[in-house]
Amino acid sequence: MTVQAVMAETPAIEWITDPALVRQRSRDFFWYSPVLKRQLNGVTAEAVACPRDEAEVIAVMAACVKHQVPLTPRGAGTGNYGQAMPLKGGVVLDLMGLNRVVWVKPGVVRAQAGIKLIELDAITRREVRGELRFHPSTRRTASLGGFIAGGSSGIGSCTYGKLREAGNILGLRVITMEATPRVLELRGTDIDKANHAYGTNGIITEVEMPLAPAWDWVDVLAEFPDTIAAARFAEALVASDGIAKKMAGVVAPGVAQRYFKPFMQMLPPGRAAALVMVAEPFLDLLAPLLDRFGGRRLYAVPTEQAETPLYEFTWNHTTLQALKVDRGLTYLQTLFPAPHHFDLVAKMDALFGEEVMQHLEFVRLGGVVSCFGLQLVRYTTEERLREIIRIHEDAGAPIFNPHAFTLEEGGMKRIDSEQLDFKRVADPHGLLNPGKMIAWDDPDWTPERKQGFYLYGQADAPEVEEILE
Question: Which residue range or ranges hold the FAD-binding PCMH-type domain (predicted)?
């Protein structure tokens, strides 16, 4: 059973077979992690299928089942954890050709999976003065389906939380990997069967999303005496429900000065920075918050007029900006649970100093203002990286490991039985993105370390309120 047989059966579909181009389409930003770079650097598919519509998606899937060829879906390839990398070779299914808006009306849009987020926002702004509730820092290149299948939160999460929170996705159209593929519409709680599943249990072809009001956003950069002062400002802003805001991030002293090229000379030495987005009518309301926490505004530019939007210095883009300057860095993804989050941040600072540089993003998590850390780490060895992770978790700061490519070892930290059960039905041969769902091969898998909070997993996972008390 070969990829060539699949190609012969689907001659009307555009195929990429040039080895250099296939390798390029088989990769994402896994190299943020030196661990994943060692593990995945040689991964490549044998060919890339570029369908133009859902019928062609179904044709490729049916042919792959017939010839038992692995199939890995891909959007723009902006993920960081190897989500779209074909561990078992076979075919990469490039969905960027499915890039049409199906319909849009006030408050909601339905679009194909391959549409770029920036293009989708442009259409909804023009048609109904709405925009997606949130987006990743890769908004200018990322696709809608890729964000749903591989993402979690981002710019806008300070108001609307994570993708998994009820109401942030309204519907998914999913194709099953069977001899005769079925088209399923997932709505309500069924959405979680394929949300953040890396395409391991169905191919998402359409997504229905709620829209937020399309404000005229302003990028604001401010300096503070230290990380905690900047963090208290960001927390207070996110807690100010009357202020329309889309982003509240913080970096420790030295981070922006070393790694944010447009702002290196703007920030005084030894000062922390806050990077926020607020709607233009509320801009003046930042002044009393800045005064309260000893901050000073350095920069305020409409987001759409900025040469590089400020969100491209936050979330996972913070790491990318740092790697452009120093390839010896990597990162963590951490929850600092309230109400002792600032004590934990200060404790980790005291323990690690410049080895782990603080980068915090403030979000609503189950309605509670919380902060995630996407800290920059000076990498030395895998053993030391594991030790840093252990120290954080022992202190009560769960790590959602960005140095692992499987669903369970990253954000889940447990088997999601609902997604596993759905895979058994929707991908009975285990051909979809194989190697990414541990539970498919080992249903009794358990993590080495238990933790008290799970971003994803079964419905009996602890409630956010229980963790944050």
Answer: 40-214
User: How sure is the predictor about 49, in pLDDT bands with cuts at 50, 70 and 90?
Assistant: very high
pLDDT reading at 335 higher than 50: yes
What the block records as the tokens of 242 is 């009357």
Q: Cβ(137)–Cβ(312) under 8 Å?
A: yes
CA distances from 111 to 27, 54, 145, 272, 342 (A): 25, 12, 9, 40, 40
Is the confidence at residue 173, as pLDDT, over 60?
yes
pLDDT band at 459 (very low <50, low <70, confident <90, very high): very low
Q: Is 425 exposed, middle or buried (0-12, 13-18, 19+ CB in 10 A)?
A: middle
Query: Which residue type occupies 83?
Result: Q
Q: Return the amino acid letter for 128.
A: V
Query: In this prediction, what percent of the chain has a pLDDT beyond 90?
Result: 91
The three-state DSSP-derived secondary structure of the chain is CCHHHHHHHCCCCEEECCHHHHHHHCCCCHHHCHHHHHHHCCCCCCEEEECCCHHHHHHHHHHHHHHCCCEEEECCCCCCCCCCCCCCCCEEEECCCCCCEEEEECCEEEEECCCEHHHHHHHHHHHHCEEECCECCCCCCCEHHHHHHHCCCCECHHHHCCCCCCCCCCEEEEECCCCCCCEEEECHHHHHHCCCCCCCCCEEEEEEEEEEECCCEEEEEEEECCHHHHHHHHHHHHHCCCCCEEEEEEECCCHHHHHCHHHCCCCCCCCEEEEEEEEHHHHHHHHHHHHHCCCEEEEEEEHHHCCCCHHHHCCHHHHHHHHHHCCCEEECCEEECCCCHHHHHHHHHHHHHHHEECEEEEEEECCEEEEEECCEEECCCHHHHHHHHHHHHHCCCCECCCCCCCCHHHHHCCCCHHHHHHHHHHCCCCCECCCCCHHHHCCCCCCCCCCCCCCCCCCCCCCHHHHHC
The more confidently predicted of residues 193 and 466 is 193
The tokens describing 347, both together, are 């404790």
Domains and CATH numbers, the chain: 3-94 (3.30.43.10), 101-213+414-458 (3.30.465.10), 217-394 (3.40.462.40)
> Which of 196, 142, 129, 136 lies closest to 169 in space, CA to CA?
196
- Mean pLDDT across 26-52: 97
For the chain, the average pLDDT equals 94
Taking every pair of C-alpha atoms in the chain, what is the biggest distance, in angstroms?
A: 68
